[in-house]
Amino acid sequence: MTERHSPTVNPPSEPGPAATGPGDDLAARLRGKLADELRQRGDLRSPEWREAVLRVPRHVFVPAFFQRTDGPGPTTWTPRVGESPKEKSSSHLEAVYSNTTLVTRLDGDRRPEDVEGPVTGTPTSSSTLPGLVVRMVEDSGVHPGDRVLEIGTGTGYSTALLCERCGDEAVTSVEYDARSARSARDALATTGRHPNLVVGDGLLGRPEGAPYDRLIATCSVRHVPAPWLEQVRSGGTLLVPLSGWLPAHGLVRLTRGRNAGEANGEFLPGCVSFMGAAGHAAPAVQGLANLLNREDAGERATDHGPAVLEDWTTTFLIQLAAPTARHLGTPAGDGTFREHLVDPATGSSATLLPDGRGGHRVRQSGPVRLWDTVEETLNRWERAGRPDQARFGMTVTGGRQWVWAGSPDGPRWELPTDVPTG
Ligand SMILES: C[S@@+](CC[C@H](N)C(=O)[O-])C[C@H]1O[C@@H](n2cnc3c(N)ncnc32)[C@H](O)[C@@H]1O
User: CA 101, 102, 103: angle at the middle one, nearest 5?
Assistant: First the structure.
């Protein structure tokens, strides 16, 4: 782990970006347009954060990105590199100042500058949707004077916004990927910002800077890592994207309790997803054919068809019910796909089949009857009045963590806090 401590301290009120040159007027105009759009959408709510959005030049943090193309084949990524940092082509600036997530790394450390033409790959770093970044800083209640720990520096754009409000010395940000961290540090320095940047595993937090008033994670976790709970002060807040291996997502805001290791909170509205944190990501599924073709399979009718694997709230519930399960599709041979829930950890699977009359059957095999577990969870949720995910909450105490639906006394599901194998 390497660290670069800030040699300078900038008060929050100090003028932000130092960058000047051709294209800066256009960039400033586009920032104003973006801020207006984010305010109209309700993401940007306070004048102070609006000022930060107006001051942080996102194009310095995202000089290049991958444009996504979905086609009949696999998703491809086309590199889009600004003509030159000085010239700042207007189309590049318009793309960078749109309310869009911009993917900046594929498969660990492939940058747009490294490839020519469309490529395939898995996004591993991005500049988060600006609307989501500002919603998160607004929702976490960050104020000047707060000490903030950010997990997932990425491009450094969200780090720069935090520096605008709190001052460089109050912001610590941890990034797993050394190359992303280097680019972020350079971009922050270009804009005159020198927060405490750490290259390392953010799941460990950063004890040296604790206690923090706020923790904001921009990569998702299967449970809240114990060091995060230890490093935020009593009464401080943690904004945590929760996800799993289905994958299903939720964003929870927790308040640290009086005792270390205790926290309570509620899920925030909206359908937002983040890339999984290294260390919590799903392992590759091995031996799918064997999992699907076990001899102990049994088949029965089910009231719950594939739609429950598409809906935002029910997919999250299914993930709670079967935390190591994955949702996969295989071609059915008639142009449609068969939907499967497979759990390599237990060697179990459930396959949904049309019953020919508009309903569904399920074929289950392995020691855990996955669809029985899913139905039991969905039935409990239905009996609780089918609360939307925005009415879910979370409790952490005594080394256990659970998500509840509707109210803290409602149905609950424990999160896996064991060391993941991903
Ligand atoms: C969505 S990006 C961050 C976006 C960033 N907030 C921005 O505005 O550019 C998520 C980042 O989390 C980083 N990450 C993933 N796992 C991590 C871990 N265990 N510790 C620290 N950073 C991690 C990824 O490398 C990636 O850069």
Answer: 115
Can you tell me the distance from the alpha carbon of 369 to that of 56, in angstroms, rounded to the nearest whole number?
A: 52
Strands (E), 181-314: 196-199, 212-217, 232-242, 250-256, 263-267, 298-302
Residue with tokens 């807040």: 237
Q: Do residues 164 and 12 lie in contact, with contact meaning Cβ atoms separated by under 8 Å?
A: yes
Amino acid at 139: D
**Of 98, 109, 157, the residue nearest 133 (C-alpha):** 157
Query: Is the CB of residue 204 below 6 angstroms from any atom belonging to ligand 1?
Result: no
- Per-residue model confidence as pLDDT tens digits over 147-171: 999 999 999 999 999 999 999 999 9
CA–CA distance, 395 with 413 (Å, rounded to integer): 10
- Residues, the chain, total? 422
Q: Are 195 and 173 in contact (CB under 8 A)?
A: yes
| Mean per-residue pLDDT over the chain, rounded | 91
Ligand 1 atom with the smallest distance to the CA of 180 is 27
- State how far the Cα of 196 lies from the Cα of 283, in Å rounded to an integer: 32
- pLDDT (tens digit per residue) in 116-142: 889 999 999 899 999 999 999 999 999
Give the Cα separation of 96 and 31 in Å (integer).
10
User: Which residues, including other chains, have CB under 8 Å from residue 265's CB and lie 6 or more apart?
Assistant: 237, 238, 252, 253, 254, 255, 393, 394
Q: What is the pLDDT of residues 221-262, one digit of tens each?
A: 999 999 999 999 999 999 999 999 999 999 999 999 999 899
| C-alpha distance from residue 305 to each of 11, 153, 233, 319, 373 (Å) | 56, 40, 45, 16, 14
What domains appear along the chain, each with residue ranges and CATH number? Answer: 2-218 (3.40.50.150), 288-383 (3.30.160.690)
The C-alpha angle with vertex 153 and arms to 151 and 155, in degrees rounded to 5, equals 155
Ligand 1 contact, 132 CB (< 6 A): no
Substitution candidate for ligand 1 out of 175, 201, 280 with most atoms within 8 A of CB? 175
Measured distance CA(191)–CA(21) in Å, rounded: 13
Which residues are known to be catalytic?
A: 126
